[in-house]
């Protein structure tokens, strides 16, 4: 079974739940990894009158299957970095960068998707040293 590593944390986007559901529906095995194995809190952004941007609100929790330190990236065929606020602080995690670096070095980056566009690309840019990739489409698997 094709395993997909999902790197996220608190402040993840509510679209994570849908991505996990769809992967399972397609016969993939998603594994959610975070800085610690715990309940992760998703957030959503609600537009309210008078505000130029959305207000962040708590949404639901989803459990991480593994901590970053417990993940062996060689066991995975694909990588997903979903949106939300999580990628903003995950790009400062040395272990997260190591995990992303594995996919780049192993030439698995063609199967990697960075949903949060520039924010998730910041993680990738850190892993490769400078180059910033953009996400042309939200999700396309194998």
Major β-sheet annotation: 5 strands, parallel
Strand order of the largest sheet: 5-2-1-6-7
Oligomeric state of shown chains: single chain
Helix content: 25-40%
Spatial gap, N to C terminus: 12 Å
Question: Beta-sheet strand percentage?
Answer: 25-35%
What number is the mean pLDDT?
A: 78
Shape: globular
Account of the protein in words:
The structure is a single chain. The chain has 142 residues and is an alpha/beta fold. It has a single domain (3-42, 55-128), classed as Class I glutamine amidotransferase (GATase) domain (Rossmann fold, 3-Layer(aba) Sandwich), CATH 3.40.50. It is built from four helices and seven strands. Helix 3 (94-105) packs across helix 4 (118-128).
Notable traits:
single chain, 142 residues, alpha/beta, 4 helices, 27% helix, disordered C terminus
Summarize, please:
With 142 residues, this protein is of the alpha/beta class. It has 4 helices and 7 strands; from the N terminus they run βαβββββααβα.
What is the topology?
Blueprint: E1 3-7, H1 15-25, E2 29-34, E3 39-46, E4 55-63, E5 66-67, E6 78-81, H2 86-90, H3 94-105, E7 112-114, H4 118-128
Parallel strand pairs: 1-2, 1-6, 2-5, 6-7
Antiparallel strand pairs: 3-4
């Amino acid at each position: 079974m094709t395993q997909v590593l999902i790197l996220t944390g608190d402040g993840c986007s509510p679209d994570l739940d849908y991505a996990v559901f769809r992967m399972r529906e397609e016969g993939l095995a998603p594994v959610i990894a975070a800085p610690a194995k715990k309940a992760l809190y998703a957030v959503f952004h609600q537009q309210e009158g008078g505000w130029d941007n959305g207000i962040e609100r708590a949404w639901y929790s989803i459990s991480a299957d593994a901590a970053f330190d417990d993940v062996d990236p060689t066991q995975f065929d694909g990588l997903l970095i979903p949106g939300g606020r999580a990628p903003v602080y995950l790009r400062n995690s040395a272990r997260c960068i190591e995990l992303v670096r594995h996919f780049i070095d192993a030439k698995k980056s063609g199967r990697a998707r960075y949903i949060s566009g520039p924010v998730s690309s910041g993680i990738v840019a850190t892993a490769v040293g400078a180059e910033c990739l953009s996400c042309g489409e939200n999700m396309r698997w194998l």
